[in-house]
């Protein structure tokens, strides 16, 4: 068996960080060799890792990208809510190291991205899309990164602005519905996440996949071959 992928986990004390660490304990192919949270120095923690998994906050990205680029380390970025400038930093960093950047690591949501593109193509201009997303009250960004990706997917085909409604309530892990309303009919596609483990599992899958890849910006669709 090849040696495990050595991971530095950033945002380790958060909800997603803890979920990734728990799942990795049961995965002999993943070794979390270092963990950082707010205030921990990232540079020394990165030295011996193969891949960095980031589930923190957008403000971490300049330091994470600069250090990963200097040390030529692969990145799996799950954090959402980046500004335009922060996204440009990620794109620039991907010129020197491989990065998987995904607003949602679940297999189901990535199939939803695929289905949304297909539905927009098949339904055409007579149908108007809209998106409703619901998350727990602690979620900091709105709309969710997943809702923005769904809107981008649909807009690429239909060239229309897509309204997004964001609901923050209770403990909801994540729900996304894409609605296409046409003359006399309506099509709805819904994904409901029951546990954060689905995102953690996808991020670990991306950490395996990225090993040996050339520099570039990859999506979870690339990882899944969709
Ligand atoms: P959280 O608030 O529970 O955890 C974030 C953690 O990051 C905290 O422990 C915080 O102290 C730490 N942190 C903040 N700034 C930091 C910095 N500069 N350096 C290091 N650590 C820092 O949030 P969460 O629910 O775990 O979500 C984390 C991120 O992941 C959010 O952006 C969320 O939207 C995103 N998310 C993505 C997916 C996906 O599939 N891509 C799924 C769920 C959540």
Notes on the protein architecture:
- The chain is of the alpha/beta class.
- The chain folds into 2 domains: 5-101 and 197-224, NAD(P)-binding Rossmann-like Domain (Rossmann fold); 107-193, Dihydrodipicolinate Reductase, domain 2 (2-Layer Sandwich).
- Helices cover 38% and strands 26% of the residues.
- It has helices at residues 15-25, 42-46, 61-71, 84-93, 107-123, 145-158, 197-209, 220-224, and strands at residues 5-10, 30-36, 51-54, 74-77, 98-101, 128-135, 164-168, 174-182, 185-193, 216-218.
- It has a 6-stranded parallel β-sheet, sandwiched between helices.
- Helix 1 (15-25) packs across helix 7, helix 3 (61-71) runs parallel beside helix 4 and helix 5 packs parallel to helix 6 (145-158).
- The longest helix has 17 residues, at 107-123.
- The protein is globular and about 60 Å long.
- It starts with a strand and ends with a helix.
- 37% of the residues are buried.
- The mean pLDDT is 96.
- Nicotinamide-adenine-dinucleotide (NAD) binds next to helix 1.
Blueprint of the fold:
Elements: E1 5-10, H1 15-25, E2 30-36, H2 42-46, E3 51-54, H3 61-71, E4 74-77, H4 84-93, E5 98-101, H5 107-123, E6 128-135, H6 145-158, E7 164-168, E8 174-182, E9 185-193, H7 197-209, E10 216-218, H8 220-224
Helix pairs in contact: 1-7, 3-4, 5-6
Bound molecules: nicotinamide-adenine-dinucleotide.
